[in-house]
Structure formats: structure tokens, C-alpha cells
């Protein structure tokens, strides 16, 4: 039943924010989702009947909060040109990308981006020992009135450090955009190859909380 419920939430958002892109709508749904259930307890994974807290790959961003999606504060937007950069960065041929976007594309003439740098509302990286990895994200203000200042609050994945730069962002007018970087580095050499660790990045203002799930896989 998740699909029809989400379709209804999308229709609700679109009725209020008629000019929002699909990516903006998805961002609003993901960044306002709840990590806890209605009893304020961690959402559990019922698949194997253990009732253990569910991981990111089971619950995604969390439980959708329809009311919060209407006023997310900030969104991670993605334009068509960004998807083209992403496809080229994945190594698709000019012919394949051209077929997908229905126009002629030359990846050599485009600033390609890695999958990790696509402006998605969550962050997933693979970390090699002794290597620092940095990803970039851009936030867009969707609050009609009033300036807000957001502070970054990080829940670091076990075994990795996370540094957000800058760790404070100020937004004034509607549509204002601000970029930031997130730097990852392994801090625990005992983490095994292909082990996964989870955390979160929260941008918090007095009125809004914009949450991004963070996943790290150790190489």
C-alpha cells in the first residue's frame, strides 16, 4: 500500500506547490520523514520477526509525514542537466545518453559528476582506507517569507568521521541556493570490507529540520 499512499502525498504537495519539480517533491517527502513510529520508538524490521530496529535499506528515509512535506524548509532539487551529468559520469556512451534524453549529447563537452555527487536527499559513499572522500550538495530555500539560519547536526556512521563545510547556512529569499560539502574518512581500521554503517545529516533551524540519511560502505 506504500505506492498509493505516496501518490496521494505527491498530489497533496503538487496542489500547493504547483511549480515544484519531481525531485523537489521527493526531497520534501524524504527529508521530513520520521525515524520513529507513532509511539516514538525506532521503526522495526518485521521481515525476520526479530523486531530489531530497521536499517536504512529497510525503511529508506523513514515513515512519511504528509503534513511536514508541505513545509520542508529546504529541498535538494535536481534539474534535467544534472541527470545528464550523472549519466555521463556513470560511463554511459554518448549514444545511450542521447537515447535516454531524446537529443544529441556529447559527454566530453559536459561536466560529469559521480553518482555520489548527484544532488539527492540522501548520501551514500564507499570509503577506502586512508582516503578522504568529499561530496557536494546544494540546498534551495522554499520558505516564502522570513530568513532562517540552519546549523548542521551530524550523527556519524560508526567507523567514519563526517565534516560538513560550512556547518551553518543562512537563507533569505525564496529560491536562494547554498552549496555545502561533506567530507568522509575512515576512523576505525577494524571495520571489515563491505561492512555498512549508517548515520544522518540534519540541517536544523528554529522552524525546520531537514534530514538526510547517510550510508557508508567500507571498501
Automatic annotation (TrEMBL):
Q: Which UniProt keywords apply?
A: Signal
List, alphabetically, the InterPro entries matched.
Peptidase_S8/S53_dom, Peptidase_S8/S53_dom_sf, SBT, Subtilisin-like_FN3
Q: Which residues form the Subtilisin-like protease fibronectin type-III domain?
A: 117-216
Q: Does the keyword Signal apply?
A: yes
- Any matching Pfam family: fn3_6
Q: Which superkingdom?
A: Eukaryota
Q: What GO molecular function annotations does the UniProt record carry, in alphabetical order? A: serine-type endopeptidase activity
Residue span, Peptidase S8/S53 domain: 1-39
According to its UniProt entry, the protein's GO biological process terms are: proteolysis
Q: Which family does it belong to?
A: Belongs to the peptidase S8 family.
Q: What is this protein called?
A: Uncharacterized protein
Amino acid at each position: 500500500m506504500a505506492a498509493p499512499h505516496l501518490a496521494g502525498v505527491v498530489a497533496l504537495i503538487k496542489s500547493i506547490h504547483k511549480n515544484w519539480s519531481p525531485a523537489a517533491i521527493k526531497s520534501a517527502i524524504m527529508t521530513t520523514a520520521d525515524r520513529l513510529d507513532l509511539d516514538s520508538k525506532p521503526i522495526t524490521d518485521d521481515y525476520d520477526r526479530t523486531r530489531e530496529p530497521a536499517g536504512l535499506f529497510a525503511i529508506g528515509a523513514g515513515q512519511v509525514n504528509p503534513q511536514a512535506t508541505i513545509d520542508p524548509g529546504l529541498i535538494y532539487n535536481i534539474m534535467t542537466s544534472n541527470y545528464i551529468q550523472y549519466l555521463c559520469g556513470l560511463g554511459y556512451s554518448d549514444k545511450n545518453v542521447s537515447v535516454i534524453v531524446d537529443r544529441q549529447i556529447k559527454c566530453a563537452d559536459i561536466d560529469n559528476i559521480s553518482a555520489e555527487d548527484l544532488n539527492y536527499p540522501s548520501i551514500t559513499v564507499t570509503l577506502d582506507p586512508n582516503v578522504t572522500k568529499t561530496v557536494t550538495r546544494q540546498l534551495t530555500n522554499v520558505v516564502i517569507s522570513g530568513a532562517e539560519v540552519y546549523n548542521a547536526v551530524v550523527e556519524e556512521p560508526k567507523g567514519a568521521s563526517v565534516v560538513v563545510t560550512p556547518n551553518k547556512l543562512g537563507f533569505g529569499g525564496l529560491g536562494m541556493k547554498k552549496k555545502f560539502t561533506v567530507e568522509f574518512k575512515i576512523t576505525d581500521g577494524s571495520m571489515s570490507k563491505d561492512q555498512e554503517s549508517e548515520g544522518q545529516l540534519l540541517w536544523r533551524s528554529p522552524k525546520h529540520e531537514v534530514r538526510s540519511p547517510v550510508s557508508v560502505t567500507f571498501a
